[in-house]
Amino acid sequence: MSGKKGQKRLKQLSNIREKKFIKSLVKTGEIGRSSVLAGFSDPTYGSKLIRNPRIASEIVKAMEKAGIDDPYLMTKLKEGCESVYPEKRASNGNITQKREPDYFTRSIYLDKALKIKGHYSPERHEILEKQIIINITPELVQGLLDTNAILPEEVQEIKQLEGNNGKELDSESNQE
Question: Global pTM?
Answer without folding.
Answer: 0.49
